[in-house]
UniProtKB/TrEMBL annotation:
Start and end residues of each N-end aminoacyl transferase N-terminal domain: 11-80
PANTHER family hit by this protein: ARGININE-TRNA-PROTEIN TRANSFERASE 1, ARGINYL-TRNA--PROTEIN TRANSFERASE 1
UniProt organism field: Helicobacter didelphidarum
Keywords, alphabetical: Acyltransferase, Cytoplasm, Transferase
Keyword Transport: no
GO MF, any single term: leucyl-tRNA--protein transferase activity
GO biological process per UniProt: ubiquitin-dependent protein catabolic process via the N-end rule pathway
One term under GO cellular component: cytoplasm
InterPro entries for this protein: Acyl_CoA_acyltransferase, Asp_Glu_LeuTrfase, N-end_Aminoacyl_Trfase, N-end_Aminoacyl_Trfase_C, N-end_Aminoacyl_Trfase_N
One of the Pfam families matching this protein, by short name: ATE_C
N-end rule aminoacyl transferase C-terminal domain span: 102-224
Identification of the protein by name: Arginyltransferase
Amino acid sequence: MEYFDFLSDIHPCSYYEDRESQFRYLGIKDCTPYFYSGLLERGYRRFGEYYFVPQCPKCKSCVTIRQLVQEFQISNNMKKILKKNVDTFMQIRRPLTNDARVCLYVKYHTKMMNKKGWGMNHIDIERYTNSFVMGSEFFGYEMCMYRDGRLIGVSYFDIVQDSMSANYFFYDHDYERLSLGTLNIILLLNLAKKLGLKYLYPGYWIKNHKSMGYKYRFRPFEALLNEADFFDRVHWKRYD
């Protein structure tokens, strides 16, 4: 296994207009599940063959959390979302690239540019493959959602050791009424529970943030308290 690391340039924060963000990246070829599990415990996320963690100079709002899978209990509202999606078909497989996936990603990102001010992201088959297919050989999966034979959502997730990591999810906003983002988390939690996994890493949580605060609904979870390096002990706090 070979890797290199670097710091990104400082750039405007995606979540707060008056703040700046910076990430530490690890480029890892043939990352082992054991090493990846240690990175997850230390707040890293995966995108292709790159693993990243925020190291913003003046802000610590993004908090790594991991949901306690075996203690998860579905709420009445979540049951309603499942009922709304009784005609939504799910397929889980190893990640692949095709025109339908790329077109849905472009449609989703264009909508988010207009809705939330996301930056331009020019993507083609090659860039899509590098982002979502490369680096997934040992542990990566995709879950595709279909409605009446039409692809309406794609979820990328990893399974390593005793954990699952939800990497990225995009969907067709024409089906926003189906609450597909929440559905994705419910399905991943249910799958992780059936597989006997201990944790689901859903990404970063920002307390009370309009876009990143929703993960608080999926308690119980643990929040990472320290920025641990490779050989540092990690400390977690439980939220019920």
